[in-house]
Automatic annotation (TrEMBL):
Residues 2-108 form the Beta-lactamase hydrolase-like protein phosphatase-like domain. One of its GO terms (molecular function) is hydrolase activity. This is TIGR01244 family phosphatase. It comes from the Bacteria. InterPro entries: BLH_phosphatase-like, Prot-tyrosine_phosphatase-like. The lineage of its organism: Bacteria, Pseudomonadati, Pseudomonadota, Alphaproteobacteria, Rhodobacterales. SUPFAM superfamilies: (Phosphotyrosine protein) phosphatases II. Gene3D superfamilies: Protein tyrosine phosphatase superfamily (3.90.190.10).
Length: 138
Protein backbone atom coordinates (compact mmCIF):
# COMPACT_ATOMS: atom_id res chain seq x y z
CA UNK A 1 0.00 0.00 0.00
CA UNK A 2 1.33 3.40 -1.03
CA UNK A 3 -0.34 6.12 1.04
CA UNK A 4 0.60 9.65 0.00
CA UNK A 5 -0.46 12.56 2.18
CA UNK A 6 -1.74 15.66 0.42
CA UNK A 7 -2.66 17.35 3.72
CA UNK A 8 -2.56 16.11 7.31
CA UNK A 9 -6.23 15.07 6.96
CA UNK A 10 -6.33 13.85 3.35
CA UNK A 11 -4.24 11.20 1.64
CA UNK A 12 -4.49 9.23 -1.56
CA UNK A 13 -3.47 5.75 -2.59
CA UNK A 14 -3.54 3.39 -5.50
CA UNK A 15 -6.05 0.53 -5.24
CA UNK A 16 -6.36 -0.93 -1.75
CA UNK A 17 -7.29 -4.46 -0.74
CA UNK A 18 -9.29 -5.75 2.23
CA UNK A 19 -6.11 -6.84 4.00
CA UNK A 20 -4.86 -3.21 3.90
CA UNK A 21 -7.73 -1.99 6.07
CA UNK A 22 -6.13 -2.71 9.48
CA UNK A 23 -3.10 -0.62 8.46
CA UNK A 24 -5.39 2.15 7.21
CA UNK A 25 -7.20 2.21 10.55
CA UNK A 26 -3.91 2.09 12.46
CA UNK A 27 -2.69 5.10 10.45
CA UNK A 28 -5.57 7.11 11.95
CA UNK A 29 -7.91 7.37 8.98
CA UNK A 30 -11.61 7.50 9.82
CA UNK A 31 -12.98 7.64 6.27
CA UNK A 32 -12.08 5.67 3.15
CA UNK A 33 -13.25 7.11 -0.16
CA UNK A 34 -13.50 4.85 -3.20
CA UNK A 35 -12.94 6.82 -6.41
CA UNK A 36 -12.54 3.74 -8.60
CA UNK A 37 -15.45 2.30 -10.60
CA UNK A 38 -16.09 -1.41 -10.10
CA UNK A 39 -15.75 -1.89 -13.87
CA UNK A 40 -11.99 -1.38 -13.45
CA UNK A 41 -11.37 -4.00 -10.77
CA UNK A 42 -11.91 -7.71 -10.15
CA UNK A 43 -14.80 -8.67 -7.85
CA UNK A 44 -12.48 -9.23 -4.86
CA UNK A 45 -11.57 -5.51 -4.97
CA UNK A 46 -15.09 -4.21 -5.61
CA UNK A 47 -16.54 -1.38 -3.58
CA UNK A 48 -18.94 -3.83 -1.93
CA UNK A 49 -16.09 -6.03 -0.68
CA UNK A 50 -14.04 -3.06 0.49
CA UNK A 51 -17.05 -1.43 2.14
CA UNK A 52 -17.54 -4.57 4.25
CA UNK A 53 -13.88 -4.61 5.32
CA UNK A 54 -13.77 -0.87 6.05
CA UNK A 55 -17.01 -0.82 8.01
CA UNK A 56 -16.00 -3.95 9.95
CA UNK A 57 -12.95 -1.98 11.10
CA UNK A 58 -15.23 0.80 12.38
CA UNK A 59 -14.41 3.27 9.60
CA UNK A 60 -16.72 5.13 7.23
CA UNK A 61 -16.76 4.07 3.57
CA UNK A 62 -17.82 6.53 0.86
CA UNK A 63 -18.33 5.36 -2.69
CA UNK A 64 -17.64 8.15 -5.21
CA UNK A 65 -16.41 6.39 -8.36
CA UNK A 66 -15.23 8.69 -11.12
CA UNK A 67 -13.62 8.64 -14.50
CA UNK A 68 -12.20 11.77 -16.06
CA UNK A 69 -15.42 12.35 -18.10
CA UNK A 70 -17.62 11.88 -15.01
CA UNK A 71 -15.68 14.29 -12.79
CA UNK A 72 -18.71 16.56 -12.44
CA UNK A 73 -19.37 19.35 -9.94
CA UNK A 74 -21.65 16.91 -8.08
CA UNK A 75 -18.85 14.32 -7.76
CA UNK A 76 -16.42 17.01 -6.64
CA UNK A 77 -18.91 18.21 -4.00
CA UNK A 78 -19.44 14.62 -2.81
CA UNK A 79 -15.66 14.23 -2.46
CA UNK A 80 -15.42 17.48 -0.51
CA UNK A 81 -18.17 16.36 1.86
CA UNK A 82 -16.47 12.99 2.41
CA UNK A 83 -13.12 14.71 3.03
CA UNK A 84 -14.83 16.63 5.82
CA UNK A 85 -15.42 13.33 7.60
CA UNK A 86 -11.65 12.73 7.75
CA UNK A 87 -8.94 12.08 8.26
CA UNK A 88 -9.69 10.53 4.90
CA UNK A 89 -7.88 8.17 2.57
CA UNK A 90 -9.12 8.23 -1.03
CA UNK A 91 -8.11 5.57 -3.52
CA UNK A 92 -8.35 4.93 -7.25
CA UNK A 93 -6.05 3.13 -9.71
CA UNK A 94 -2.96 5.24 -9.03
CA UNK A 95 -4.07 8.02 -6.69
CA UNK A 96 -4.22 10.57 -9.51
CA UNK A 97 -8.02 10.84 -9.77
CA UNK A 98 -8.26 11.16 -5.99
CA UNK A 99 -5.65 13.95 -6.13
CA UNK A 100 -7.52 15.70 -8.93
CA UNK A 101 -10.78 15.53 -6.96
CA UNK A 102 -9.06 17.06 -3.93
CA UNK A 103 -7.56 19.78 -6.11
CA UNK A 104 -10.87 20.68 -7.72
CA UNK A 105 -12.57 20.73 -4.32
CA UNK A 106 -9.94 23.20 -3.10
CA UNK A 107 -10.10 25.46 -6.17
CA UNK A 108 -11.23 28.91 -5.20
CA UNK A 109 -10.56 28.15 -1.54
CA UNK A 110 -6.77 28.07 -1.52
CA UNK A 111 -4.30 29.50 -4.06
CA UNK A 112 -3.68 27.44 -7.18
CA UNK A 113 0.07 27.38 -6.52
CA UNK A 114 -0.55 25.79 -3.11
CA UNK A 115 -2.84 23.15 -4.61
CA UNK A 116 -0.30 22.21 -7.26
CA UNK A 117 2.55 22.21 -4.73
CA UNK A 118 0.66 19.93 -2.32
CA UNK A 119 -0.10 17.33 -4.99
CA UNK A 120 3.41 17.60 -6.38
CA UNK A 121 4.92 16.84 -2.94
CA UNK A 122 2.78 13.69 -2.95
CA UNK A 123 4.15 12.71 -6.37
CA UNK A 124 1.30 13.89 -8.60
CA UNK A 125 2.09 16.50 -11.24
CA UNK A 126 -1.21 18.29 -11.77
CA UNK A 127 0.20 21.48 -13.31
CA UNK A 128 -1.98 20.88 -16.38
CA UNK A 129 -5.02 21.53 -14.14
CA UNK A 130 -3.91 25.12 -13.54
CA UNK A 131 -6.37 26.73 -16.02
CA UNK A 132 -9.33 24.87 -14.51
CA UNK A 133 -8.20 25.64 -10.96
CA UNK A 134 -7.68 29.31 -11.83
CA UNK A 135 -11.19 29.52 -13.33
CA UNK A 136 -12.68 28.55 -9.98
CA UNK A 137 -10.88 31.47 -8.35
CA UNK A 138 -12.95 33.81 -10.46
Amino acid sequence: MDIRRITPDYAVSPQIAPDDVPDIAAAGFRTVICNRPDSEVPMELSAEVLRAAVEAAGLTFVENPVTHPTMTPERIARQAAAMGEGPALAYCASGTRSSILWSLAQAGRIPTDEIIAATSRAGYDLAALRPRLDLARG
